[in-house]
Specification:
Number of strands: 14
Largest sheet: 6 strands, mixed
CATH topology of the largest domain: D-Maltodextrin-Binding Protein, domain 2
Number of domains: 2
CATH architecture of the largest domain: 3-Layer(aba) Sandwich
Pfam families: SBP_bac_3
CATH superfamily of the largest domain: Periplasmic binding protein-like II
Protein name: Transporter substrate-binding domain-containing protein
Strand content: 15-25%
Organism: Ochrobactrum teleogrylli
Number of helices: 9
Strand order of the largest sheet: 9-13-8-12-10-11
Order of helices and strands: HEEEEHEHEEEEHEHEHEHEEHH
Radius of gyration: 22 Å
Keywords: Signal
Shape: globular
Helix content: 25-40%
Structural class: alpha/beta
Distance between the termini: 57 Å
Length: 283
């Protein structure tokens, strides 16, 4: 009996020490470096004077104020942004980065602060300006049979054509899974680059987020760009745009989650998204 009592006492002491040690090891964040691309308008872009602007730039300032931390925003190429995060070059990513199952194998994410579908775009006089199921929303995980039927309809129309897409993007994941056996996929470092090739006729279509394409079509010189085909959501496309974080940093993840939820609740995300996208992207 005494042995059992001694064991229980030792166990309780060990648990107390472990909890105290864990508490002591919690990282106190007072400064953050956040990476963005600086070339994915309206989420983020670089102005002529070299400063960053856009939805995520404004939102990051709001979130940092709520978290009471000093933040610096830096621009990084999108195709290497996750490896650079894991290498410790910065603390977080806000770069139109969607939380997908594949990416969650490598990094953690906050709750989402933006949700828009992926879709195609082409030129208004193109034979692909009215692809099958244009304007319809396809939920890739909810009704897989119906989604696959619609995808097959689109594939039949674009067979053998060339589609531009940004490297390491969600659009590339969509094309790789559903369209690579019917079209030639051409990767670009930035979305601006594939837009230029679309206008010059070097690609027949591009794939990107609805938010990006809606904004791109408003730019001077892009009046002939139109969206076409279905709006793709869910499944491999994830749960929305979120803050990318290194694994095993729960304190920072909690800070961002609480700040984002507060920004949703008081309408800040709605206000900023309507300013930058023209519609509400609140998840």
């Amino acid at each position: 009996m005494k042995t059992k009592g001694l064991f229980k006492a030792l166990l309780v002491s060990a648990l107390v020490v472990t909890a105290a040690s864990a508490h002591a090891e919690e990282k106190k964040w007072t400064k953050l470096t956040i990476a963005t691309e600086g070339a994915f308008r309206p989420y983020n872009f670089t102005k002529p004077d070299g400063t960053l602007d856009g939805y995520e730039i404004e939102l990051s300032k709001d979130l940092c104020a709520r978290m009471k931390v000093e933040c610096a925003m830096i621009a990084q190429p999108f195709d290497g942004i996750i490896p650079a995060l894991n290498a410790g070059k910065f603390d977080a990513i806000m770069a139109g980065l969607t939380a997908t199952p594949k990416r969650e194998e490598t990094i953690d994410f906050s709750v989402s602060y933006g949700l828009t579908p992926q879709t195609f775009a082409t030129l208004k006089d193109s034979p692909f300006a009215k692809l099958p199921h244009t304007g319809e929303t396809l939920y890739l995980a909810k009704d897989e049979a119906a989604a696959q039927k619609a995808i097959d309809d689109v594939k039949a129309e674009i067979k053998g054509r060339t589609i531009g897409v940004q490297t390491a993007s969600l659009g590339l994941s969509l094309l790789d899974k559903y369209f690579k056996d019917s079209a030639d996929i051409r990767e670009y470092k930035t979305t601006d680059q594939h837009d230029l090739d679309l206008k010059s006729g070097r690609v027949d279509l591009v794939v990107a987020s609805l938010a990006y394409l809606s904004d791109a079509a408003k730019k001077p010189g892009n009046e002939d760009i139109v969206m076409t085909g279905p709006f793709f959501k869910g499944g491999i496309l994830g749960r929305g745009v979120a803050v990318g974080l290194r694994k095993n940093e729960p304190e920072l993840q909690k800070m961002f989650n609480e700040a984002i939820e507060a920004a949703k609740a008081d309408g800040t995300i709605k206000r900023l998204s309507e300013k930058w996208f023209g519609f509400d992207v609140t998840p």
